[in-house]
Specification:
single chain, Hypothetical Protein Ychn, Chain: A, globular
Length: about 120
């Protein structure tokens, strides 16, 4: 049995659905604040949330702005991994990511140790 807990959260909703896009970050923030290791995986439209400037414009009623939640998750050690976006859903080249080094491309050992 591992000596620490790990939570993997998949983010599949993008900025078009702010509430469903924000909820995974709220869950991740609560988990990292409780000393749970968090890995967030981004697939489909969810990949857009880690593009430069996108999270800054996503807000859902009764939740903190997504950009602040994302920064908190990162600050407390949450790891972010992105898969592939749907075709035609924005530029996801490395230079288009929110901050260099913030997000890793999806790795086959996502649930294991450091890639």
């Amino acid at each position: 049995m591992p000596d620490h807990e790990k939570l993997v959260i998949m983010v599949t909703h993008g900025p078009e659905d702010p509430e469903l896009a924000t909820i995974p970050f709220v869950m991740a923030g609560a988990a990292v604040a409780s000393d749970v290791e968090v890995v967030m995986g981004f697939q489909g439209d969810g990949c857009r949330l880690v593009q430069k400037g996108v999270a800054d414009s996503v807000t859902a009623p009764e939740f903190a702005p997504l950009s602040g939640l994302l920064d908190s998750v990162r600050e407390f050690g949450g790891r972010l991994h992105r898969g592939r976006a749907r075709r035609g859903r924005g530029d996801l080249r490395r230079g288009a990511l929110r901050r260099r080094g913030d997000v890793r491309h999806q790795h086959p050992r996502l649930l294991g140790g450091d890639p």
